[in-house]
UniProtKB/TrEMBL annotation:
UniProt name for this protein: glutaminase
GO-annotated molecular function: glutaminase activity; ligase activity; lyase activity
Gene3D superfamilies in the cross-refs: 3.40.50.880
Similarity remark: Belongs to the glutaminase PdxT/SNO family.
EC number: 3.5.1.2
Any one of the GO BP annotations: pyridoxine metabolic process
First and last residue of the signal peptide: none
């Protein structure tokens, strides 16, 4: 009898849309009969260390950071980032992974896994929440009409320069208030050695999806649709290639 390798994908379940991620991950892997997946809600350090990959959902990044600290999960999450495993943050999850945030709250802590600056609540009041079909065909083959959901969404306002990234070319979103009220991550122990790739910019010039090596960040919520193609791409491109 052959023993199938098991892939454990955790979804951080401190707060936010974690159940939705688990449902779409399950739907996305239904046809993988030759692989063995386990999708778990992660609330404790013991659960976190069993994960081969991690998803950080949308929700509220200030609450997520406070709950992480209160439940003793913040330090284990910093360690997890150093372990060089795939991670995907959506919306509040993207904010939690950034190195700098604009419009952050003073007590808010961030993990500093992605060399980016993120602006919270970056769309004006009129456009606080909206849905838009986007073309991701340049990085997900055939996916040219994906239903994206933006809810009080952040954007990536800057790609940050780092000492090891010699080929750095400054890329900025078209955005106001660049340098107001910035919160910095103090994760000094971690250096992501891959360059930041911009995966998607809106027509307005705002950057809404990036990848830096094994870490993926999106401003929008593929978990709040019933289209599992984005989750399938995460499994194929990040989880299975690791
Ligand atoms: N604005 C929220 C925050 O700052 C993110 C919103 C979301 O995840 N839908 O955390």
């Amino acid at each position: 009898m052959t023993v199938l390798k098991q892939y454990t994908v955790g979804v951080l379940a401190l707060q936010g849309a974690f159940k939705e991620h688990i449902e779409l991950l399950q739907a996305a892997t239904q046809t993988y009969s030759d692989l063995n997946f386990k999708f778990i809600e992660v609330r404790t350090p013991e659960e976190l260390i069993t994960c081969d990959s991690l998803v950080i959902p949308g929700g509220e990044s200030t609450a997520m950071s406070l709950i992480a600290e209160r439940t003793g999960m913040f330090e284990p999450l910093l360690k997890y980032i150093q372990s060089d495993k795939p991670i995907w943050g959506t919306c509040a999850g993207l904010i939690f992974l950034a190195k700098q945030i604009i419009n952050g709250r003073p007590e808010q802590k961030i993990l500093g896994a992605l060399d980016i600056q993120v602006k919270r609540n970056a769309f004006g009041r009129q456009q606080e929440s909206f849905e838009s079909p986007l073309d991701f065909g340049s990085f997900i083959p055939g996916v040219d009409n994906f239903p994206t959901v933006f809810i009080r969404a952040p954007v990536i306002s800057k790609i940050l320069e780092t000492s090891y990234n010699k080929e750095f070319i400054p890329i900025e979103s078209i955005i106001d208030n660049q340098d107001q009220n910035i919160i910095y991550s103090n994760n000094k122990d971690f250096q992501n050695n891959s360059p930041v790739q911009v995966l998607h910019k809106l027509d307005s010039g705002l950057i809404v999806a990036v990848r830096q090596g094994k870490i993926l960040g999106t401003s929008f919520h593929p978990e709040l649709t019933n289209d599992f193609r984005f989750h399938k791409w995460f499994i194929d491109e990040f989880v299975l290639k690791n």
